[in-house]
What we know:
Blueprint: E1 2-7, H1 12-25, E2 30-35, H2 38-47, E3 52-55, H3 61-66, E4 71-85, E5 94-95, H4 97-104, H5 114-119, E6 131-135, H6 140-152, H7 154-159, E7 172-174, H8 176-186, E8 190-195, H9 196-201, E9 208-210, E10 216-217, H10 221-229, E11 253-261, H11 267-282, E12 294-295, H12 298-308
Parallel strand pairs: 1-2, 1-3, 5-9, 6-7, 6-8
Antiparallel strand pairs: 3-11, 4-8, 4-11, 4-12, 9-10
Helix pairs in contact: 11-12
Amino acid sequence: MTINGAGATFPYPIYSKWFDEYAKVDPSVRFNYQSIGSGGGQKQIVAQTVDFGASDGPMSDENLAKAPGKLIHIPTVAGAVVITYNLPGYPEVKLDGGVTAGIYLGNITKWNDPQIAALNPGASLPNQDIVIVHRSDGSGTTFIFTDYLSKVSSEWKSKVGNNTSVNWPAGIGGKGNEGVSGQVKQTEGAIGYVELIYAIQNKMPYASLKNADGKFVKPTLESITAAMRTAQIPDDFRFSMTNAEGPDAYPIAGATWLLVYEQQKDAAKGKKLVDFLKWALTKGEYMARQLDYAPLPDALRDRVLKRVDEIKM
């Protein structure tokens, strides 16, 4: 039996591992997952062309209303969106929300701009144009990044806003986390935003960011978990954890969700999907750390498992 899914590129490394490992647990089922971006995942689950969708931004009320049945959000892991760059000598770079928004708005155009220099005393920043790279597809990574920028910059919020795709004021596009990583890697002076694992796998540097408590924090498992700990999580599991409070919280962190129908059309497939979800939320969570994702805190995981039990065949 093949269970088809599509959506987010952000959790693709962990989902691939889960699907491979689960084939050993239940050899009668195969998962076919297309890493096409969160926007595509939401569209395909609404159109029922896949058995599950995947998204790093929760679906809006408007999009949920388009679905032919009740869709439920199942948070799986949390990760970090990192700001990666390509500069000669790979200096350590520190950024804050205002400067990051200023760069992406096209207001700050040189690496040695006084606002960047002020955050990086002693760093050797070149007199070089900043080449902005952003996602070209509908993307949950973009949703998390623009959610953060909308919280830290009123100019960003009013001019651009928060969505899986936005009208970018400046820059060049790359498809998927893979595309943005590739563009930044081959373009000197480039800056881009990608999921942490993509920066690590491609050996790319990434910035420390000033958080809501005024501390510069690197994206790590601990700083992602610290951000998730303070998130207010409602019963429908649609929540944001960007710009979280707390001295140890990394500010551009986000969860990722699987999207499934509460009432499954195909009972046999539905049962296999539920079995997989229960495995992923228990055994699968232990694999998250190896791939630099933060597992769900126990209390949240227990709430999510209860929701999985409500899926009907």
